[in-house]
Specification:
alpha/beta, elongated, 9 strands, about 15% strand
Length: about 425
């Protein structure tokens, strides 16, 4: 059997969610797949669940290691034989037609990368973020995207590997894709794959469901540990990649915003134990940007304020408070602008309705006036006709002959 897609699933202590994940993979409508599960040092019943599923489905391969998420993915990739590669997080799940849909899209378009839509799965609801739509022009061919089409997206807020499928050949061309054992390893990997892909397509279907957990996820736990400082390594690696591969000049403005966004995100969530050190690292890292006055001026309002607050204050709490105040101010301003826009639209609608009403009334009045004028014209024609008849009668011989008789009749009366 030719393997069309290799599904790589790193597994770590997800006994409560693993079955749903595996069920969504083994029941895919695309059957020509292999499922590579890397048990990454689980201490719960995750391995037992994997073994139970492997007994029922020969497509499942289990590898046991203890090396971290990035290296686990690399381990899976090293033994993968599929034409395309798909990474899944073991606490999430995918739509049952996901792999068939993506594989078909990739084959038709000869894509190195296919990007698709996903949903955030909360306990009682789903949220559907906008992925590419805000970046694309109306006439953009989503089956043949180029880097200019998605330039702002390359270093945007969504970096995860699981809403993209990759042609295996892409990984054979380069040997430096980022699989280091640090947190947030998705970020440079995302940038590398998109900038190196010769052909990218977009599938606007929601095919992946990312479980939002209050606790337990790597992202949530990292902000309370020293792992939060990994973000600086990730940023530095991304910067080096851009510089070493000739992308920095073209993508400098995107990188500046990316760096500020990443530092801000983790700064505002940093655990109390690491706040002072994180502020110090943030000052050093942001200062290394060497922003010009024009570059600062062109930053979005919040990040312009964040930059100034980081460089101005020496206390973590001061910076965080000023950032919160700025965030609220911008939020309120946007809300007021939105309300202003709503009121303007309402007034515009009322004016439009009023003008339409006046126009209709004018048309009705004009129609009634025309009817009256037509009626008057008809009556005038009748009068004109009768008048002519009378004149004709009076000028007739019979009228003149009977004149004496009419006179006698009137006299007798």
């Amino acid at each position: 059997m030719t393997i069309k897609v290799s599904v790589i699933i790193p597994v770590y202590n997800v006994e409560d969610y693993l079955e749903k994940c595996l069920d969504s993979i083994i029941n895919q409508t695309l059957k020509d797949i292999e499922i590579i599960c890397i048990n990454d040092g689980s201490t719960d019943n995750s391995l037992e669940i994997l073994e139970e599923y492997a007994e029922k489905d020969e497509r499942i391969k289990i590898i046991t290691k203890n090396e971290g998420l990035g290296p686990a993915r690399k381990t899976g990739l090293d033994i993968a034989s599929g034409e395309y590669i798909y990474f899944v997080d073991s606490d999430d799940w995918v739509a049952l037609n996901a792999l068939e849909t993506l594989y078909t899209n990739a084959k038709i378009n000869n894509s190195d990368v296919v990007i698709f839509k996903f949903a955030f799965a909360y306990k009682n609801k789903f949220e559907y973020p906008i992925i590419l739509e805000n970046y694309l022009k109306k006439d953009t061919d989503v089956n043949n995207l180029n880097l200019n089409d998605i330039k702002p997206f390359i270093m945007n807020r969504y970096f995860a590997v699981w809403f993209k499928i990759f042609k295996h050949e892409l990984f054979n061309k380069y040997d430096d894709f980022y699989f280091e054992g640090v947190t947030y390893e998705d970020v440079p990997f995302h940038v590398q794959t998109l900038l190196r892909a010769e052909k990218i397509s977009y599938c606007p279907e929601t095919l992946y469901f990312y479980r939002k957990r209050d606790k337990g996820s790597l992202l949530n736990s990292s902000v309370e540990s020293i792992k939060i400082f990994d973000i600086f390594e990730v940023i530095n690696y991304t910067e080096q990649f851009l510089e070493n591969n000739g992308f920095m000049e073209e993508y400098r403005s995107e990188f500046l915003l990316f760096k500020l966004q990443q530092i801000n995100y983790y700064f505002m969530r940093c655990g109390k134990e690491f706040q002072k050190d994180f502020l110090d690292r943030s000052k050093i890292s942001i200062n290394e940007l060497n922003l010009t006055s024009n570059e600062i001026k062109e930053l979005p309002e919040y990040y312009k304020g964040f930059y100034n607050n980081i460089m101005r204050f020496s206390s973590y709490n001061e910076v965080k408070l000023e950032n919160k105040i700025l965030e609220i101010q911008i939020e309120k301003t946007n809300e007021l602008n939105k309300q202003h826009g709503i009121h303007w639209n309402e007034l515009h609608t009322l004016k439009k309705e009023y003008n339409a009403k006046i126009k209709n009334q004018k048309a009705n009045y004009e129609s009634q006036i025309k009817i009256l004028n037509d009626f008057i014209d008809v009556k005038n024609e009748e009068i004109k006709s009768k008048t002519k008849l009378i004149i004709d009668m009076k000028s007739s011989i019979s009228w003149r002959i009977t004149k004496p008789l009419r006179y006698i009749r009137n006299f007798i009366k």
